[in-house]
Structures are given as structure tokens and as C-alpha cells.
Amino acid sequence: MTEQIDLSDLESRAERMVAAAKAAGADACDVVAATGVSLSVDVRDGKVEETDRAEGDDVTLRVFVGNRTASVSSNGLDDFAGMAERAVAMARVTPEDPYSGLAEESRLVRTFPKLDLLDPEPVSADQLAELARQAEAAALAVSGVSKSGGAGASWRLGGMVLATSHGFSGSYLASRHGLSAMAVAGEGTGMERDYDFDSRSFFEDMADPADIGRRAGERAVRRLNPVKISTRTVDVVYESRAARSLLGHFAGAVNGSSIARKTSFLRDKMNEQIFGEHISIVDDPFKPRGGATRPFDGEGARAEKLNMVEAGVLQHWFLDGATARELGLSPNGRAHRGGSGTVPGATNLTLLPGEKSLEEIMLEMGNGLLVTDLSGHGVNGVTGDYSRGAAGYLIENGEPVQAVSEITIAGNLKDMFRRLIPASDLDNRYAVATPSILIEGMALAGS
Hints:
Blueprint: H1 8-23, E1 28-44, E2 47-65, E3 68-74, H2 80-91, H3 125-140, E4 145-164, E5 169-185, E6 192-200, H4 209-222, E7 232-238, H5 240-253, H6 256-261, E8 281-283, E9 306-310, E10 313-314, H7 321-327, E11 335-338, E12 341-344, E13 349-351, H8 358-365, E14 368-379, E15 385-396, E16 399-412, H9 413-419, E17 420-422, E18 432-433, E19 437-445
Parallel strand pairs: 7-14, 13-18
Antiparallel strand pairs: 1-2, 1-4, 2-3, 4-5, 5-6, 7-19, 8-9, 8-13, 9-10, 11-12, 14-15, 15-16, 16-19, 17-19
């Protein structure tokens, strides 16, 4: 039986640390404390291979002395005076940063929204083991599966506390459940493997373990006997699981840090058409049971749902306070705690679905490539040049007919975004959510 976490004591300690930093000579400061407990179970051939339980706290004090800043971290929150004195001493000898500072008081959250983040139901190691066994058994029951690649189930409860010297104090708890299965098909050098998984805030939203295992087995069997294909230009459909990476590249390109460093291929594209008119992308920190839902950002600032792209036109960067000041813009509540300070980033980022199903899109394209897996990191954030290893299936007459592997697909993200067509099968489970995506006329390098 797993216990819940009481954040009240951690909140009190964070506020005492703020007072200690002010007493030590800090002009301003904030304290962020993260705490959590997790439980995971791995199963293979019906037997528990490993059970892991972890608990931990991490505390970071950030102080400002004029335009100078420094941070110290600890896994506890007891040596208030020592941490504060050390941080202030470090700040006094660091170079000045004209953009550093706390969020403006007018931007701080004063009334916390009620968000559905915490599943109160307890989870035990025995329950997790049983879920993993069910998923594995379903994978092994698929005809053509030769052995299990293992299955795992997990649960995590995490909490965040933030207190600042200008009057903010807030906290929240969030839960996460996960389940995955891997299946192996074939024998010897002809073996192929694939997996399926689910991850949700609430256990009641999780997919049936038997469905996860069955899909893992079916995917592994479909990958058997892949062929190599010749170099060509081809229409490419990214399965929703693979398509999430494209939205991730977009998120990186509209991150305020990349804009400030001039390392984004979209740095000069604000208020310009970068997608087709049928494309909308939203970022919503209040998405119900979302993977990145939160009541305030890493600075204690309020955030609103942002229409990042409307009718194909770029509308916003992701901005925290420091990056916004550097760019001469207003922050938009997208601060994440990172290292010694904050970095801007997305919350729940979603490419809205199109009107046609994946099957309809493949039928209309006739022949092409369905990409189910990507490998490598061949994306140049400055130019947008794109080259990734891929595996998937040849599409003939609108149907996936033959597994293919050891291919490379290439293009430029600026051109790919303009030709992007979303299907209607939005996979809305994760913080980065997309439907399947068609991109016409990509270069394919084969044998």
C-alpha cells in the first residue's frame, strides 16, 4: 500500500529557507522543492525480475544579489542558514546577468485552479506485477510471437513546492501510471521486436493490459522479413507514435532560448505562415489529466492556453521571465525549473487533428511509406535540415503490405511543415500529442 505525500511541512520549510536567504543578504530569492515516491515492477516469463521503490527530495535555493545570481541544491531542507550563506557568497562573485530575476509580482498566481492531477487510489507491487503479467501473456498469445521481451508496470507520485521572497507560495501533487510490453517474433537472425505502452495520470484511464500486450505482439509479427528498398522520392505517413517527434522539433524551434541564441530555423518567422492554413497547434497547461498539467509555472506565474499556430500562422514563442526580458517581450507562463534556474518550454502541446482517418489518407495516397519507428538525431535546429533513420511498411494501393528497414528519410522541416497533413486519429495521452501525419514528397535513401 503506497502512502500519500503531505506537502505542508515542505511548504513551511521552503518559506523558512526564503527568510534565511533574506537574512543572509539576498535581495531576492526563491526555493523550489521536489519530492516523490515511485514503484515499478518488471516481469519476464511470468516471473517478477525486479521490483524497485524509490523516494527522494531535491531542494534548490536561488538567490539574487543585484543582477548577480547563484543557486545551491541539497537533498534536504534543514541547514537553512548554511545554504543561504553559501548561496549569497557565491552570488556576490558571479558575473552580472541583466536578464535574471523573479517573475513580476503582477504575474504571480494568487488563486490556484482546481486541476485533476492526483489519483487517490493506492497501488501495490502485487497489483503492478499482475498488470505486467497480463500484458505479457497477451503478447505471447499472438501467433508468431516466439518469446517475451518483458513487461513492466509503474506508478509515481510527485510533488512540487515553490516559495519566493516576493510573496508566492504554492504546491501541487501529481500521479502517473505506466504499463508496457515488448514481444519478440521470429528466430535467430530473423528476429524482430516491438512494443506497446500506455501512460496516464489516473489508473482508470489506462488501456487494458491485454490490449497493450496484444498490440505489442501484433506489431512484432508484422515486422518480420523486412526488405530493403531503393532510393526514391516518396509520400510518407508518420504513425502517431512517430509523429510526436515532429511536434517536438517544432517545440524546440519556438523555444525562447533558441530564439535568443539565434539557433532556431524559425527565428524570423513570427506572424508568418509556417504550416498550411488547416493547421492549428495549442499549448494548454490546464488540459484535464494532462501529462504536463500544472497550476503555475516554474516561477509561480500564471499561464493561459496558447494558440501557438492558428490557420498555419506562428503566434507565440515559449517564454519564461529571463528569456522574455532578453527578447524584449512579455512572459507567457512557460517557465520550467532546470538546473540552477528556469528554462522556457511547452506544457501540453497538441497538433489538432484533421478530418480524414489514417486509412482514408493512405487510400488516397495510393503508394508510399508508413513510418512506425525513427532512429538517430539528424536534425539541424539552425537550418531545419532533417535526416532520420526509419523503419515501417511500404504502402501499396492504400494498404501497408511489406515491412521495410534500414532506410533514411530526409528533407527540411520548413518545407515539411508546409506540406504537413494531420489525420483524425489524435493520440491525446501524452504531453506532446499528435495524430498520424502525412508529408508528401520526401527523399528516401535506401539500398
